Amino acid sequence: MKLDNTAPGQPGADTWSDEDLDLLRQTVRRFVQQRLQPLEAAIDQADDVSPELDAKIRQEALELGIYGFNFPQNLGGPGLSVKARCVIYEEITQTSMPLVEALGHLPLTLAYCDSGQKAGLLKEIVSARKLMTYALTEPGAGSDLGAIQTRGVSVEGGWLLNGSKQFISNAQTADYIVVLSCTDPAAPIKRRLSTFIVRKDNPGIKGMVRYQKMGWRGYHLNGFSLEDCFVPHEDVLGAPGQGFEVMMSCINTDRVFSAFRAWGIARRAQDMAIEYARERKAFGARLADHQAIQFMLADNDVELRAASLLAHEAAHLTDIDDPQARIAASRAKLYATEMGSRVVDRVMQIFGGMGYMTELPIERFYRDMRAFRIGEGTSEMQRIQIARHILQH
Questions:
Q1: pTM score, two decimals?
Q2: Where in this chain does the record put each Acyl-CoA oxidase/dehydrogenase middle domain (predicted)?
């Protein structure tokens, strides 16, 4: 099966039959299990993916039809229904972070491209020829966008940017970095910020570093500075002062994706634990026959089901632009990422010493899962958003 613009399903319309969805699931699952999962251990050990392998995987995903699967048709994507997108979410998250990244969950901030940007930059990104990332986080500003210190000053022909960014995904390998900058410090937060497309060969990018991490090995997180970085007017994304709106346009989908990523790792770990419990014997009986193990598997099952329901609800509400989508995405992200750590911890306990060894991916799941409670808005930030919502309604 290959997805294209003639595939069933349009944004917001679940016209895919159960047979279509099942075939889609089988196709993506086969690609993940047979092509990607065998690469995980070597990438984790090397803490890198070669540019050649990354480009090859992106091309294979493009040929399969899942690259940019989250994009509507007007941005060059397949325009899949929310059910179809959720099927892909569920399957692609069964591999490691750098390999999931190569499958092309693209930033919806590109909806703000003007006609010239659509003809150039957007086509390059949707076709996997070029890569884009976006840079929000700074040494003194994470989820608090009002604390952004990077400054953009209007000059003849464009803008000069000065500031620093940290913990930016794949900044070193991206062709374009969408930089959030303060352009009117006196304005309200919703008019204070602007977004700029900074090209990788821009001489104003200084001091690019790569951070060494506990997990997500092979997935680059970078820091860099901007020193009198000139960006021409044609590389402003959206209108000046529209940066808050531009960046918020993708926050819900990114949090939903984060929820699915945590759920996917946890589900894979649970599947491994079930198989192991059926085969491994201790004290004359299978692990599966011991009540302590049964309770752990049962708790995992309930939590996985709850996280799945929250993630699917958030995806649906985001798809139809429901006012409740923002809080639904926070609920899903909070619960799924916290749940994932609990599930993987139980799975490691079921595997015992073997789960702690690098011969199995359980210890990698354990390391990787921890970061999801920080990225895309910490668990504490999600709790703040949810609490404010319920206290105001």
A1: 0.92
A2: 134-229
* Percentage of the chain modeled with pLDDT above 70: 96
Residue at token pair 């075939």: 23
Q: Helix (H, G, I), strand (E, B), or coil: what is residue 72? A: coil
Q: For residue range 57-111, what is the model confidence (pLDDT) as tens digits?
A: 999 999 999 999 999 999 999 999 999 999 999 999 999 999 999 999 999 999 9
Which phi and psi (to 5°) does residue 159 adopt? Answer: -140, 150
Residue among 212, 196, 208 at smallest CA distance from 164: 208
CA distances from 300 to 270, 274, 279 (A): 7, 10, 19
**DSSP for residue 309:** H
Other residues' Cβ atoms within 10 Å of the Cβ of residue 221: 20
Domains, the chain, ranges and CATH?
18-106 (1.10.540.10), 132-247 (2.40.110.10), 250-392 (1.20.140.10)
* Of residues 176, 177, 156, the one with CA closest to residue 233: 156
Q: Where are the beta strands (DSSP E) in the chain?
A: 132-135, 151-155, 158-169, 176-182, 193-199, 205-210, 221-232, 236-237, 281-282, 285-286
User: Are residues 97 and 218 in contact, defined by beta-carbon separation less than 8 angstroms?
Assistant: yes
Q: What is the DSSP string of 79-95?
A: ---HHHHHHHHHHHTTS
Place of tokens 């996985």: 304
- Residue 379 CA to residue 339 CA, distance in Å, equals 11
Q: Which residues belong to the active site? A: 376
- E-state strands within 8-138: 132-135
